[in-house]
Predict the structure.
Amino acid sequence: MTETRTIRLRNWSLGGGHPLFLIAGPCVIESRSHCLDLAGRLGEIAARLEIPFIFKASYDKANRTSVRSFRGPGIDEGLEILETVRRQIGVPVLSDVHSPAEADQAGRVLDVIQVPAFLCRQTDLLLAAARTGRIVNVKKGQFLAPWDAENILEKIASAGNRQILLTERGTSFGYNNLVVDFKSLPVMREYGFPVVFDATHSVQLPGGAGIQSSGQAEFIEPLARAAVAVGVDGLFCEVHENPEAALSDGANALRLDRLEGMLNQLKEIDSLVKSRFSSK
């Protein structure tokens, strides 16, 4: 298993053969109180399990299926909420950006800037995200082969930023379905940057409910176990205490009360896989 570069975030080491880290939170910022409550509960779980944790929540879901779908509070209010989470809960925060101007504004607040899958080839956006100096997490587009991701990495690195995470979220298979090719994980790790597996968007059925996406949440845990067994640096997981009532992507969210048990299993698998490779 190729060893990826180590990225420092606060007092944590991400990648480089270090233990699994977690990116988790709701799909979208639903309210200030919901974000603070969920970030606190997720932070407590991660602290108990000694797992590095980054809280994620989108201030704007710009690619919702329907114009009538809830998109979030927008960048100004959303970043203010995330800054409150960062300050009061004491955890690093991540959100999506959709334009170079957004990247500059978000970079003043976020610890990790995320480039959405559908925008992963937008050169100006990638360069703007890189120039913030923040860690950049790029979702590999559903339309890309894993070896196409090397060009994305080169664009970001060309701006002098090598703090890059690359996230697999499944490949379009047509007719509202996504498929995960687990070969993509070791392929992308060959480029030397930490690779993350998005266990929740990988079970999404894009547009599968007509005016919104559907999902198969029952496959989140087995796919997460498979990805960690193959060898990844981090896990991305959208989590909600009541997915049926979530304002975005509830059908493919992990129920909060399932998270700790799943992470316990993943820690054991991660430790076994990394110890075997580090001993060679």
DSSP finds eight helices and 15 strands in the chain. The first strand starts at residue 6 and ends at 9. The helical segments are 32-49, 75-88, 100-106, 123-131, 149-158, 184-189, 220-230, 256-278. The CA atoms of residues 89 and 270 lie 27 Å apart.
